[in-house]
Every structure is written in C-alpha cells, then in structure tokens.
Amino acid sequence: MASETAAAWDRFAAEYQRQAQLSTVAAQYGPDIPTEADLRLLGDVKGRRVLELGCGAAQCSIAFAKAGAIAIGVDFSAEQLGHARQLCDREEVKVDLRLADMADLAFLRADSVDAAFSSYAFNYVEDLGRVFRQVHRVLKVGAPLVFSLPHPAYFVMDEDSAPPVTERSYFDRSPERFQWGGVGFTGYHHTFADLYMGLVRASYRVDLVVEPEPIPGAPRSWFWHDAMDWLPRTLIVRARKEGN
Ligand SMILES: C[S@@+](CC[C@H](N)C(=O)[O-])C[C@H]1O[C@@H](n2cnc3c(N)ncnc32)[C@H](O)[C@@H]1O
Predict the structure, then answer these.
(1) Which of 32, 102, 118 to mutate to test the pocket of ligand 1 (most atoms within 8 A of CB)?
(2) Where are the beta strands (DSSP E) in 106-188?
(3) How many structural domains comprise the chain?
(4) Which residues contact ligand 1 via a Cβ below 6 A?
(5) Residue 206, H or E segment
(6) What is the CATH number for 66?
(7) Three state DSSP letters for the chain
(8) Structural domain for 142, as ranges
(9) Ligand 1 centre from 121 Cα, in Å?
(10) What pLDDT tens digit does each residue of the chain (244 aa) get?
C-alpha cells in the first residue's frame, strides 16, 4: 500500500507543486492557518538537527535551513524529492534529502535528532504507531515531534458542503480512497484518541494541541473550502520523547 501511495505522489507531484505554491519563508502546518513563524511550536531551530517526515518539495525544511537548522527531509516519492532538489538549488539552501519511507529511519542514529516535524503526511500512513516508534528512536530525550494532519472531525465530513455534513462514521478506520487531480490516493483516518494513545504507547508526552482557525481576511489558498469556516481543517500536535 505504501508503494501505491508513493507512486500516486510521483504522478501528482508536478501538478501539486504547480497549484500549491507553498512558501519557503516559514514552515506551514496547513492551508489558510498561521505558520510556524506565528505559532513557534518548535522553538529556535538554529544549529539544531530538524527532521521532516514526508517533506514533499521540502518547503518547510528549506524554511528550517534558512533559520539556521541542519535540515533533513525524508520522502518516499522520487518525483516530490526531485522538486525538492530543484527548490533547494534555486534558493541556494542545503537540505539533506533522503528517499525513504518515514516508517524506516535506519539511516539515522539513535538519539541524534533535536526536533521532528511533519505537515499533512501522516494522513497517508496506515500504521502510525510504527512511525512514532521510529521517530522516538532517533529523537533526543525531551525533543519534540510536531505534526499536522487533517483534523479527524473534518476528515469525516463532505467538505464541499457548508455547513459540512458527515459523510462517514467517525469510528470507521477503513482506508478512504479518493481522487485528487485525476490521481487515486488512499487516506487514513486517525481519531483523536488513536493519535493520543499511539503517542503515549510509543513513550511520548503530548504537551500541546492546536486547532487553528482560518486567518481572518487573508486571501484564500488553492485548498480553501467554505467548510473550513465551520470546523478546524487542521489538527496540530506536539509530543515530546520520554526516556528511552
Ligand atoms: C501533502 S504532501 C505534504 C508535503 C508538504 N508538507 C506539503 O504540504 O506539500 C504529503 C507527502 O508525504 C509523502 N509521504 C506520504 N507517506 C509517506 C511515507 N510513508 N514515507 C515518506 N513519505 C511519505 C508523500 O510522498 C508526499 O510528498
């Protein structure tokens, strides 16, 4: 299933990057909400090793590198990483880009990463527990894993209607097949309790949860739906590695 998702991202990469036009100024947690420049969930990254999981074209990793971080970006789509390489060259920024599944971080030493970050990639991962364990191994004790994904309450909605109406049960964890730009993808619904308990079981302490509201008055992105005025589109979680 992971290889199908990587292949889907390979097919969609060019169109996605053309449409999304993500900024490299500050790491973004999702569409139409404040960025890391406002939220400051990672703290000062200067001189710190920051790992991005599912980095796509690495816009966030580039922002970390511009802020002085030693940035490492992991993605399993060769096409997405090709865009990342071009963007790094264009912006003259160094990011250590790795073609890998985020569920297998064998190329990183244990206790070697100061912060892990992921924006809108965990919703393509079925077994998040495995990712949490892999990231736990490479993080230093006390270091944060900060991630965003579609809010589980939004995920079950038909976003084309406003106010949004439920289109699947909150309790239904079966994979969701959907088309995006003519490409078939599979998404995974992680309930809030699944996320929280998955982190606790993998020995993290959740210390922050954010449900950002759309920025009032700001121009709306390619991703905008009016349903985003009714429910949080994005859930952000920060968890810290407890002892080994
Ligand atoms: C929506 S993009 C997010 C990237 C970036 N944050 C953005 O907003 O454009 C999702 C990315 O996650 C990557 N991805 C999904 N599952 C992955 C996995 N198991 N291992 C590595 N990368 C993965 C995809 O290839 C894709 O580039």
Answers:
(1) 102
(2) 115-119, 144-150, 157-158, 165-166, 176-180, 183-187
(3) 1
(4) 2, 5-6, 9, 20, 22, 54, 56, 60, 74-77, 80, 101-103, 119-121, 124-125
(5) strand 204-210
(6) 3.40.50.150
(7) CHHHHHHHHHHHHHHHHHHHCCCCCCCCCCCCCCCHHHHCCCCCCCCCEEEEECCCCCHHHHHHHHCCCEEEEEECCHHHHHHHHHHHHHHCCCEEEEECCCCCCCCCCCCCECEEEEECCHHHCCCHHHHHHHHHHHECCCCEEEEEEECHHHHCEECCCCCCEECCCCCCCCCEEEEECCEEEEECCCCHHHHHHHHHHCCEEEEEEECCCCCCCCCCCCCCCHHHHCCCCEEEEEEEECCC
(8) 2-241
(9) 4
(10) 779 999 999 999 999 999 999 999 999 999 999 999 999 999 999 999 999 999 999 999 999 999 999 999 999 999 999 999 999 999 999 999 999 999 999 999 999 999 999 999 999 999 999 999 999 999 999 999 999 999 999 999 999 998 989 999 999 999 999 999 999 999 999 999 999 999 999 999 999 999 999 999 999 999 999 999 999 999 999 999 998 7
Judge contact between 61 and 50, C-beta under 8 A.
yes
Calculate how far, in angstroms, residue 100's C-alpha sits from the geometric centre of ligand 1. Answer: 11
- From the CA of 102, give the closest atom in ligand 1: 20
Give the ligand 1 atom nearest the CA of 16: 9
Contact 95, 88 (CB under 8 A): yes
DSSP of 61-91, one letter per residue? HHHHHHTT-EEEEEES-HHHHHHHHHHHHHH
